[in-house]
Specification:
Length: about 750
């Protein structure tokens, strides 16, 4: 009977995992013949096909980019929407890193609906990375805006506020289009509330993952307006610590109000040639559109001043309900929950414990977390050893997922006997107090289950017959949040970060420990053998399967580099994983990864490429009043230019094409400052440096050309179908230096 209950609890957790994966797989795409006032993913998909045209990559500054812009303008004209373009040179210095990205970009600005005061801004970017056609990232956002505009027009929108659509350029090169828009005081002054739609994959729910500060009223409006919830204050809290940004980041940094939506499923397609319309989920597109249209309509008659307020904490349950509360309530409610649970434990106590039992009981959850974390890393390492690849389950995650699940459950069986009474909920409430102080957005994952448990356990403290039911009902919110988080975490990062699976799974199972029966020694050992033995077998199977496939390929860029500083030419292949044998056989690549040049961000496998073939970029240098001006001279084929200023030069400020920047103190932490001018017109950029060093300085200068030279085609041909270029894709780098007296 004990094993039946243990198995039932394990199956309950599995059911919640499947529910978490399936919860957001709706609604069905709305057909093209649906009422004109509705958002239709089918109609948006047809629009997407038209704006993508031949489905080629269209990074900023390229002819393909101009063609994409023209197709969007044509769609707006068909909708009867007046649109203009705005071309400007913009720079976005990333203060967290010693990097400045610049370029000339052209935004599309459309006046959708007239109104008074500040505008509702529908925001997406229309450029793509050089490596992929950008159907999801972010042409899906462009199609979402266009279908939203069509639906708004069809409903005869009578908005109290103007509605604008802004299609930015150069987002992939450093949010340059958004920066150009915000650099214009007239445009910036028109912004009231922004709804941004983005993508980091091609499937999955349309997540509300970021809002502007003071978001309580924004979340209330979202909860009242949209059909399907997919959000958590935890997403926003985590996003603030990540190095990733979107266009909305700049709007928020300028003190503006906004919502940020993105989908992150099937990340293998992201920024690769697989980012195609065929791979884009229409369910995802429908959710994106439902969110944007619903919020645009809700904002039409909303006083924007009333959207300002305090922060909220919130987390949806299976997309159907969205409990939320002011962030300021988190700490007092956490303390109250803790005290109520302490009282329930005291009232329900039937036996005393010695100090060893007390220590064992109190420390059990911490030991369990450490154990499951170690188990996850160990199983992942075993799969890596068998596979020989850093991400052994990238293409086939099922076996490693099963290994992690068995490893976590086995660790629970191993460690759960340490607790002699339900200490789980004391830990939940205590952690709710901690995160309420230090990371408030995380609080719902502990506080919401703890509040339910506090009420039920206190109510059942003197009713032993009801106690098991109180424990079971208390466990359900924890399972919904934490096991659901396991599913979301895998969607975002795969299984390459084991704690993203094992830690939330542990918290989910922690809520079930008070329900677990005592097992006999034979049963307990058999259970451990089944779980840990099965986990090891599953990890080995994961390692024996191909790590990559045609639908989940290795990201592998190949570059040709001519180093005129050291007078040699070579090939560089990304070192994310061991090189595929056909590619290694095509050239004499080294066995160990190394930096292709000083200051490179990533390692690569290098192979000699013969004689030098291209002329290096140059710079005409003039000096006056302590300032050094460089007039860059790249080749006609240059698509980007880079200037590397060593730390020893003491860069205090610089000006590029009229944009002036003072070097922030954070840049002093790096060895160099990289100024990247990312559009083709940068081949003739002018940069003025203000340097504090009085000693001779050597600057690095490079140009990048899109694609490999013709004589490098043999390497592209040798790359197997289980590997693809990503991000910038293949390129030709020509390195030179500029010596300053």
């Amino acid at each position: 009977m004990s094993w039946i209950r243990v198995t039932g609890l394990a199956l309950l957790a599995v059911i919640f995992w499947f529910a978490g994966r399936a919860a957001y797989d709706r609604p069905a795409p709305v057909a093209v013949n649906a009422p004109a006032t509705e958002f239709s993913a089918m109609r948006a998909d047809a629009t997407l096909a038209r704006i993508l045209g031949p489905a080629r990559p269209h990074p900023a500054g390229t002819p393909e980019n101009a063609a994409e812009r023209g197709r969007i303008l044509a769609e707006l004209a068909k909708l009867g929407v007046k649109a203009t373009t705005y071309t400007a040179f913009a720079c976005n210095p990333a203060h967290r890193f010693p990097v400045v990205a610049c370029g000339t970009v052209t935004d599309i600005i459309a006046d959708v609906v007239p109104g008074q005061g500040k505008a509702i801004v529908l925001l997406a970017h229309y450029d793509s990375v050089p490596a992929g056609p950008g159907a999801a990232d972010d042409a899906s956002g462009d199609a979402t805006i266009l279908e939203t505009i069509r639906a708004l027009k069809a409903s005869g929108a009578r908005s109290e506020h103007p509605i604008m659509a802004v299609f930015t350029d150069g987002e992939e090169y450093g949010l340059l289009g958004a920066q150009a828009f915000l650099d214009n005081p007239g445009y910036r002054a028109r912004v009231g509330v922004v709804i941004n739609v983005e993508a980091r994959g091609s499937t999955g729910p349309s997540l509300l993952f970021q809002t502007s500060p003071g978001d309580a009223k924004l979340i209330d409006l979202y909860a009242k307006s949209v059909k399907q919830y997919a959000t958590s204050s935890l997403y926003d809290a985590i996003y603030r610590f990540l190095p990733n940004d979107t266009d909305l980041t700049l709007f928020i940094n300028n003190g503006l109000t906004g919502y940020n939506f993105a989908f992150v499923g099937t990340v293998a397609d992201y920024h690769t040639p697989l980012d195609t319309r065929a791979n884009l989920s229409l369910v995802t597109l429908q959710q994106h559109g439902d969110n944007m249209l619903a919020l645009a309509r809700a904002l039409e008659h909303t006083d924007f001043a009333r959207l300002k307020g305090g922060d909220a904490i919130y987390a949806d349950f299976f997309g159907t309900i969205l409990p939320r509360m002011p962030a300021g309530w988190a700490l007092p409610l956490s303390i109250a929950a803790f005290l109520m649970i302490v009282a329930s434990v005291y009232l329900a106590s039937r036996q005393s414990m010695n100090w060893r039992q007390k220590l064992s009981t109190i420390s059990m959850p911490l030991v369990l977390l450490i154990g499951t974390t170690i188990a996850g890393f160990a199983l992942h390492y075993l799969a890596q050893l068998v596979s020989g690849m850093p991400e052994p389950a990238f293409a086939h995650p099922l076996a490693l997922r099963l290994a992690f699940a068995l490893g976590v459950f086995g660790t629970v069986l191993l460690i759960a006997p340490m607790a002699t009474r339900p200490v789980t909920w004391l830990w939940f409430a205590a952690l709710a107090i901690v995160v309420s102080i230090f990371l408030t957005g995380f609080a719902p994952y502990f506080l919401f289950p703890a509040l339910v448990a506090a009420v039920l356990l206190l109510a059942s403290a003197r009713m032993p017959a009801f106690r098991p039911w109180a424990l079971l009902i208390s466990a359900l919110p924890a399972l919904a949040l934490w096991i659901g988080f396991v599913a979301q975490g895998e969607m975002l990062m795969g299984l390459q970060v084991p704690p993203l699976f094992t830690v939330p799974a542990t918290f989910g199972l922690l809520a079930l420990i008070p329900l677990m029966p005592e097992l006999g020694k034979a049963e307990w050992r058999a259970g451990l053998g089944i779980c840990f033995g099965g986990a090891i077998v599953a990890a080995v199977i994961a390692g024996l399967q191909p790590a990559y496939s045609a639908t989940a390929p290795l990201r592998l860029n190949i570059n040709y580099i001519e180093d005129h500083i050291h007078s040699h030419a070579f090939w560089a292949a990304d070192a994310r994983a061991p090189l595929p044998p056909p590619l290694r056989a095509a050239a004499k690549f080294g066995l160990k990864p190394e930096k292709p040049y000083p200051g490179a961000f990533t390692d690569a496998y290098l192979a000699p490429a013969g004689a030098m073939r291209f002329a290096p970029p140059t710079a005409q240098v003039t000096q006056q009043n302590g300032r050094v001006t460089l007039h860059l001279q790249g080749s006609a084929d240059a698509s980007q230019m880079y200037l590397v200023v060593p730390k020893a030069a003491g860069l205090a400020a610089f000006t590029i094409n009229g944009k002036h920047f003072t070097a922030p103190v954070e840049w002093a932490k790096g060895d160099q400052i990289l100024i990247g001018c990312t559009t083709p017109d940068c081949r003739n950029a002018t940069i003025t440096l203000e340097l504090s060093s009085k000693k001779p300085v050597t600057l690095g200068l490079a140009e990048r050309r899109a694609g490999l030279p013709p004589f490098g085609k043999f390497l592209s041909t040798a790359r197997p179908k289980t590997a693809v270029p990503s991000q910038l894709g293949e390129g030709t780098f020509i390195l030179a230096s500029v010596k300053l007296p």
